[in-house]
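FORM 7B: Structural annotation worksheet

SECTION A. Query
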Amino acid sequence: MPTSMIDTSRSFTLRNPRQTSVAFALILAAALLPVAGCERGHSADVMATVNGHAIMKPELDKRYQAQLGDAAQQQQGQPSQEQADSLRLNLLRELIDEEIVQQRAAKMNLTATNEEVDAKLAEMKAPYTEEQFEQRLKASNHTLDDVKHDLRRSLTINKLLNKEINSKVTVTDADVTNYYNQHKFEFNLNETQYHLAQIQVTDAPNAQPGNLQNSKATNDVDAKKKVQALKNRLDSGEDFGAIAMNFSEQPATAPNGGDMGFVGESQMHADPAVFNAVTKLKAGQITEILPLLDQQTKKPAGYAIYKLLSREPAGQRDVNDPRVQQAIRQQLRDGRSQLLKNAYLEMLHDQAKVENFFAEQIFKNEAH
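SECTION B. Predicted structure
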């Protein structure tokens, strides 16, 4: 599970052009107001204020530790003091941005209700038993209150942006046609594409299972028994995606029901057994149990079952193809929505009174 069960801040952090002139503003402030900074009567635990609302040190520390956890998992080591301060500054900007948005939503009566939070929480918990959910909370160093807080924040942001941004974005048929004519090459497949899903069972005893049931084979005999049991369940009509989510030992695809996305025919040739089995399938059918090869050594590493979701033949896709239409509309909508979002959040920043005491403290300590 990610360090944060819900991560919304990055999607809504401003790339603020004014940040490039922060140093000049601070220099000017230091010259004109030498007694400014963290001596304005606020508590040492107040990192910043947004329209008078304080962002406290424990909140920043928690966000910082979450980021450090991600860095540790990537074996990046501990940051230097300068790197730590820089990271804290960036995270504090995120918290400031979030507070500005939350205040705007509150003014418009768009703050998520308890009922909305509880409904979203129930949706999150649905794939797990109560014990599994508690384990995931513990592993992420989150409490249930933390999760509810993050849910309320993300739901509130979505409600505000849906009202202020997404409802104003339109994509016409002419827009779609113009985009297609200018990017026709993007819809010309140079080879057949196979949309696949997979269930993997490996014989590696120390590998992470990556599935909801924490199910893991520990040797080849165990792997054979497990994959055969799963194949029997599939043959009896059980849902492939549900089986993959609960039992597949491929962490990259199990959470998505085993969905591998589209795989090109040339890539499929890397494993002739899989290629021969998949090319005989019709959409919706599954393969027999196949040997799973290690990508580096090409030696057997377990077993796999594949499902063909769809096959896309090579050639030019027409603008009237519903999938082409949907892809273009979504791309245009996302681009316009992001542009409006950036402009909107910049406007909210201009209207807010922000005091960043942590930034002032860093400048005071470092500008010798």
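SECTION C. Observations
The chain has a mean pLDDT of 85. The domain at 9-166+342-366 is CATH 1.10.4030.10 (Triger factor/SurA peptide-binding fold).

SECTION D. Sign-off
Analyst initials: ____
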